[in-house]
Design a protein that fits this description.
heterodimer, A: mainly alpha, three-stranded antiparallel β-sheet, two-stranded antiparallel ribbon, 12 helices, 40% helix, globular, B: mainly alpha, 2 domains, 6 helices
Chain lengths: 306, 165
């Protein structure tokens, strides 16, 4: 009488384990996902600036020394979070320390599936949840461009992440829950707004800082771009929905060009690094981002705590 | 006569002491209300705003929103350079950062990297001098300097400022 019940429980547990095993397994792209795509380094330079790669992967500024060029991608910048501190890796084309040995498919798997060439999950501090929306051709172009940059021999440092978040396999569940290639802002967009959406939601990954996250670190899509606390520090990333950002399209375009606000304050913090990249984009692309921001649903900022 | 004078001096001194004491008390009470470094932070913001207003006058011409006017451009550049060269060192006391006071977004990194702050400040001052030399010399000269001035603002804000409170 008892025995069939026990067998049933064991079978259920085995099925659950198998389910978790399957759900947490890294899932790379099909082997032929990038077949036939030829990268163009010139176009890749624009993808590189639109994607803001250098804003996180360039070497951090060292006191007393002039900053290295932002095409030297040796990594080392630190990113605090509720889950630990992440350290940007070397993505220069150095063959041993960087990604010089990566194929186009390796880069696509990293950027669109968050999977490393050796089949492990990346932490979503690397914004593959945004890059998943990128065009494969743009990734091929970016790959061609990255290979033209100077190799840097700085070793990548391990992230400072404690248990249970140190078990990368668990990230499979995060991806299952949060990886979503669908556009956040849907509806009838003009060609310019559509280009702006591509730049903001895919390559530019604006939402990674400017959107609030739930307690598992997933972006709350209903509050897209409505601002969020700076992890591990005081202050917050501002609400850039039309509920708060009342600048004109020309104002936003100027800010993404020179860093000047309409009041001639200038961009600070990590946004200054972002603008060092958007400043290289064609003017039409900056204007497209501005046009898109005007189409984002307005979301009020939460009232400040008393 | 002499006696009267001494009495007069004494009473003036007493009044002054009382006034100072009163001011001190008021000041202390005010500082307590507004938090530590409130006056230094307010003065920093005032100087920054004044610089921004003059950069704004130059920027409006650079962008073509306002017609170029050599005299107006020179005046704005002179004001900017004067404001940039104020000795405001007393306004940056150790600890007057965003951890101490909600009214500032200055990061503790500013004090941890004082040499870097001083170097970036010097770059900004040099850029305002270059603007002073260029602003009255035609729109193209102004535009060229505007492109160099902006990054010297950004250099400090990038390293030493939080996004918003």
């Amino acid at each position: 009488m008892l025995r069939p019940v026990l067998i049933g429980i064991a079978a259920l547990a085995a099925a659950a384990l198998a389910g978790v095993f399957a759900l947490t397994r890294p899932a790379p792209l099909p082997a032929d996902a990038m077949a036939g795509l030829v990268g163009d380094a010139g176009r890749g330079a624009v993808v590189f600036r639109a994607g803001g790669c250098a804003a996180c992967h360039r070497a951090p500024e060292v006191a007393g020394r002039p900053p290295a060029p932002d095409t030297e991608l040796g990594g080392g910048m630190r990113f605090a979070s509720p889950f630990g501190t992440f350290i940007a890796p070397n993505i220069s084309p150095d063959l041993t320390q960087g990604i010089g040995g990566w194929s186009v498919l390796d880069l696509a798997n990293a950027m669109q599936r968050g999977v490393s060439p050796d089949g492990r999950h990346y932490y979503p501090v690397f914004p593959y949840a945004s890059y998943i929306r990128a065009e494969p051709q743009d990734i091929a172009d970016l790959h061609a461009y990255l290979l033209t940059l100077p190799p840097v021999a700085t070793p990548s440092l391990p992230h400072e992440v404690g248990f249970p978040f140190s078990v990368r396999r668990g990230l499979g569940l995060w991806k299952w829950r949060y990886l979503d290639p669908a556009w956040v802002v849907a509806g009838d967009l003009s060609p310019e707004e559509t280009r702006g959406r591509y730049l903001a939601e895919a390559l530019g990954h604006c939402g990674e800082c400017h959107s609030p996250r739930d307690r598992f670190g997933g972006i709350i899509r209903a509050r897209w771009l409505s601002g969020a606390p700076v992890p591990g520090a005081k202050g917050s990333f501002p609400n850039i929905t039309p509920a708060r950002l009342d600048w004109s399209v020309a104002d936003i375009t100027e800010y993404l060009t020179s860093g000047f606000t309409p009041d001639y304050d200038s961009a600070g913090g990590h946004m200054a690094l972002v603008i060092e990249n958007t400043a290289h984009l064609p003017q039409a692309d900056r204007a497209a981002i501005a046009a898109y921001l005007k189409r984002v649903p307005p979301v009020a900022s939460p009232a400040a705590a008393p | 006569m002499k006696r009267t004078t001494s009495a007069g001096i004494l009473s003036i001194a007493a009044l002054a002491v009382a006034a100072l004491a009163g001011a001190g008390l008021n000041g202390a009470a005010e500082a307590q209300d507004k938090g530590p470094f409130a006056n230094q932070i307010a003065a920093r913001h005032g100087i920054m705003l004044y610089r921004a207003m003059n950069i704004g006058a130059l920027g409006a011409m650079a962008k073509g929103e306002v017609a170029y006017d050599a005299a107006a451009a020179q005046k704005a550049a002179d004001n900017l350079a004067a404001a940039a060269h104020l000795d405001d060192s007393m306004l940056w006391p150790e600890g007057s950062d965003n951890g101490a006071h909600a009214g500032t977004i200055a990061l503790p990194a500013l004090w941890a990297d004082k040499a870097g702050f001083d170097a970036k400040y010097a770059d900004f001052r040099a850029a305002t001098e270059a603007m002073q030399g260029a602003a009255g010399q035609g729109l193209e000269a102004l535009q060229a300097e505007m492109g160099k001035l902006g990054p010297t603002c950004g250099a400090c804000h990038k390293a030493y400022r939080a996004p918003t409170n």
